[in-house]
Each structure stands twice: as structure tokens, then as C-alpha cells.
């Protein structure tokens, strides 16, 4: 069964506490927290102070997705704010190998995200170091976009790369995931499903989480 990681980007920020309670009482194991800097992506979301407060509401895994330039300047602060997993973008890191070590040295898990234009084989030399690969299935920056179908091919390639390297790596998929395409995404190799609008725009978000879980 996939791990479900609701993306709070799609929640009503005026009722963030209610969103946390809903996820806490749901079948979701992770909180997916999208940090955007207006430079790496053309949007700005939220940062450490918000994550710090969310952290206090939950014992579930806080999965922090950094869509920011120079993430190495901030990973320690995000760990202090409560991150259990920090994912940095392949495209935002000049020294990715060092950045992964930096995150792991904080005692937390390190993820690497790839944008839709980044080929899976670019991960060959770091696959043995990362704890998770996040495959973006939309261009990062906004919720509510359409799933890019080519992602399914990339997931199969990634699964093969991980098997060949005998690496212990989770595959997370993020963007445009709904009840309509989740089964195909899991069949292609996803371990963690991120979903924002499909969950938070639904009349019964917890029911959608349960349905994604049972996929
Ligand atoms: C996009 C973010 C996603 C986003 C997913 O840049 O990384 O986590 O919130 O939202 P949906 O599920 O609506 O595509
Ligand atoms: Zn995300």
C-alpha cells in the first residue's frame, strides 16, 4: 500500500489547524510541506515559522519539499522547524552529493527531486546516497495542475535504476495525482503519493485519503 502525503499547499491556510487534525485522524502517514522561494519556482508559499506550528500538531512524518535556490543555506533551519525528511531539487544544487550528506548529518532523511525535464539517468551517481527520489509529475510551483503522462515511463526507469544499484530508496511522486491515475502511478513504482487538490478540494478529504491508500 502506498504512503499518502497530503500537500498542505491546497489547504485553507486560515484553517490550518483543522487541516492538520483531519490528516492526523486519517490514513495518511506523512504531511507534505511545499516551500517555495519565488526564485527556483515562480511562486512563494510558506517557510519555517509555519512548519514549526504544524510540527506541534502532529507526530506523523513531516516531509519538507524545498523548491528553493541554495537549499544548503536553510536545511538546518528546516530540521529545527521539525522536518523528518528534506527533499532538495537536483536542478537547485551545485553540490548535490554534499547537500545530501549535509541533510543526513542532521539525523534526518534526504530526498532528491527531479523536474519533468530532468532525465532519470542523471541520478545514476547519487542513487546510492539518497533516501528518497521525488519525481515531479507537474512543473513545480503550483497545485492543481495536470499530471504529465511521461512520468509513468520515468518511474519505470527509476525503479530499474534502483534495482540495478541495489539501493534502498523510496520513490515519491508529486503533482496532479487523483483517484483516476493513482493506480497506474503505484503500478509504475511509486511508494509515496503526494496529493493536494484531490484531497483538500474534496467534500470528504479523509475519505479520499483512504481511497488513495486502498488503491
Ligand atoms: C507543486 C507541489 C505539489 C502540489 C501538489 O509544486 O510540489 O506538492 O502541492 O498539488 P496537486 O496535488 O494539486 O497537484
Ligand atoms: Zn511538493
Notes on the protein architecture:
- With 215 residues, this protein is an alpha/beta fold.
- It has a single domain (3-213), classed as TIM Barrel.
- It contains eight helices and eight strands; from the N terminus they run βαβαβαβαββαβαβαα.
- The protein has helices at residues 16-24, 48-56, 75-81, 96-105, 151-165, 182-187, 197-200, 205-213, and strands spanning 3-6, 30-36, 61-67, 85-89, 109-114, 132-136, 170-174, 192-195.
- The protein has an eight-stranded parallel beta sheet.
- Helix 2 (48-56) links the parallel strand 2 and strand 3.
- The longest helix has 15 residues, at 151-165.
- It is globular, with a radius of gyration of 16 Å.
- The protein binds D-xylitol-5-phosphate and zinc ion.
- Residues 7, 9-10, 32, 34, 65, 138, 140-145, 174-177, 194-198 line the site of D-xylitol-5-phosphate.
- Its cofactor is Mn(2+); Fe(2+); Co(2+); Zn(2+).
- The active site is at 34 (proton acceptor), 174 (proton donor).
- InterPro entries: Aldolase_TIM (IPR013785), Ribul_P_3_epim (IPR026019), Ribul_P_3_epim-like (IPR000056), RibuloseP-bd_barrel (IPR011060).
- Catalyzes the reversible epimerization of D-ribulose 5-phosphate to D-xylulose 5-phosphate.
- Belongs to the ribulose-phosphate 3-epimerase family.
Amino acid at each position: 500500500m502506498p504512503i499518502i502525503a497530503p500537500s498542505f499547499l491546497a489547504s485553507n491556510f486560515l484553517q490550518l489547524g483543522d487541516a492538520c487534525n483531519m490528516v492526523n485522524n486519517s490514513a495518511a502517514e506523512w504531511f507534505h510541506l511545499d516551500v517555495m522561494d519565488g526564485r527556483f519556482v515562480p511562486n512563494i508559499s510558506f517557510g519555517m515559522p509555519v512548519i514549526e506550528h504544524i510540527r506541534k500538531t502532529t507526530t506523523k512524518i513531516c516531509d519538507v519539499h524545498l523548491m528553493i535556490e541554495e537549499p544548503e543555506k536553510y536545511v538546518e533551519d528546516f530540521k529545527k522547524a521539525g522536518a523528518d525528511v528534506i527533499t532538495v531539487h537536483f536542478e537547485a544544487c551545485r553540490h548535490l552529493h554534499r547537500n545530501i550528506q549535509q541533510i543526513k548529518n542532521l539525523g534526518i532523511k534526504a530526498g532528491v527531486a527531479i523536474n519533468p525535464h530532468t532525465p532519470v539517468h542523471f541520478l545514476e551517481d547519487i542513487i546510492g546516497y539518497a533516501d528518497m527520489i521525488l519525481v515531479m509529475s507537474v512543473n513545480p510551483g503550483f497545485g492543481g495542475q495536470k499530471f504529465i503522462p511521461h512520468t509513468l515511463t520515468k518511474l519505470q526507469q527509476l525503479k530499474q535504476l534502483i534495482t540495478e544499484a541495489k539501493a534502498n530508496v523510496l520513490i515519491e511522486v508529486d503533482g496532479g495525482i487523483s483517484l483516476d491515475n493513482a493506480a497506474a502511478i503505484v503500478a509504475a513504482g511509486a511508494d509515496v503519493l503526494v496529493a493536494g487538490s484531490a484531497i483538500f478540494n474534496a467534500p470528504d478529504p479523509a475519505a479520499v485519503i483512504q481511497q488513495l491508500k486502498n488503491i
